[in-house]
Amino acid sequence: MEWHQLPLGPLQTNCYILSKEDNTCLIFDPGEESGKLRRFIEQKQLKPLAIILTHAHFDHIGAVDDTRDEYNIPVYIHEKEADWLLDPALNGSHFFEMGKLVRGKPADHFITDEKELKVGDFSFQIFETPGHSPGSLSFYFKDAGLVISGDALFSGSIGRTDLPGGNQDQLLRSIHEQLLTLPEETIVLPGHGPATTIGQEMDSNPFLNGF
Description:
Elements: E1 2-8, E2 13-19, E3 24-28, H1 34-44, E4 47-52, H2 58-61, H3 64-71, E5 75-78, H4 88-91, E6 109-111, E7 116-119, E8 122-128, E9 137-141, E10 146-150, E11 153-154, E12 157-158, H5 168-179, E13 187-190, E14 196-197, H6 198-204
Parallel strand pairs: 3-4, 4-5, 5-6, 10-13
Antiparallel strand pairs: 1-2, 2-3, 7-8, 8-9, 9-10, 11-12, 13-14
C-alpha cells in the first residue's frame, strides 16, 4: 500500500490518499481544492472507494461533496459530528473568514464506536481520539505501519482545543491511551504539517511531557 499527502486549501490541510496495487484508493479529509485532488487521482489513475473523515472542521471537509459526486462514493464520519457537515456554525466556517461557508450533504455512514473497518481490500482500526473535537477519529493501518491522526497529534505539537467541543485534558488522554501505545516506528500522518513517528513524538514532543 502507498500513501500520498496532498496539502489543500488556505490552511494547507493534509488530504491523504491511500492506494493498493490495483489502484483502488481511500481519500481522507478532502479539505478544499477538489480540482487539484481530481487531477492527482487522474494522474495516478486511481479508483476511489470512499471518503473517510478524521473530523468535520471546515478545513477538512470543503471538497467532500464535489469529490463524492465526482466518483459516486460514500462518506464516513463519527456520529457525534454528523450535523457538522451541514452546519457552518458547527464546522467553524461561520467563524473563520476563509472565503465561504461550508454547508454540505449528510454523510452516508456514521461511525459509532471503535472497531475494524473494511472498505474494499482495505482493513484498518478505528480509534476514537476526541479532544480537538468531540468526534475526532484516528485510523490505524497495522500492516502498513501508519496511523492517520487528523488534528490530534502533529509533529512536535498537538491539536488546538479552544474551538467548540475541544478539551485539552481529553485530547492528551486520547493521545497517550490510543496513539502512544502503538509501536514506536509507526508513521503518524497528521492533519497539518509533515509526517512523524510515534517514537519521535514520545521523545521530543513538548506537549506530551509530564502528562
